[in-house]
Amino acid sequence: MGAAAFVWPLISQMNPDASTIAAGAPIEVDLSPIAVGQDIKVFWRGKPIYIMNRTKKQIDEARAVQISSLPDPESDQARVKEGHDNWLVVIGICTHLGCVPLAHEGNYDGFFCPCHGSQYDSSGRIRQGPAPANLPIPPYKFVSDTKVQIG
What we know:
Layout: H1 2-12, H2 18-24, E1 27-30, E2 39-44, E3 47-53, H3 56-64, E4 87-91, E5 102-105, E6 110-112, E7 119-120, E8 126-128, E9 140-144, E10 147-150
Antiparallel strand pairs: 1-10, 2-3, 3-4, 5-6, 6-7, 7-8, 9-10
């Protein structure tokens, strides 16, 4: 009994503290207030996450792009979850120098980074400018039709 009382605090102190757990904990986001054509920005692990409710026009334009013409080739279908094609979830950090791009700006109705002019389409794919890669996609899943879990 005495050994257990001695060992317990030593083992307990090896567990991560609450702030460490919270920093990596998944977050749930209610999508119901986001109208078609709008987006919101939330934060997960200190990173801005854009959640965009894309219009049919944005989806059609993103899917009409010749994939081989993209600097970082990736289909629109690979960047969204099946059955939820209208929802785009990306980490809002420019892949050039880490700035935060603006949503619904630029030539492609996607994202525009005003720092050096990188432009991403409505699928978060780099289309123009110095950025070398598409906006990253965080790990996420739909827990219902109106809720998404990021992380």
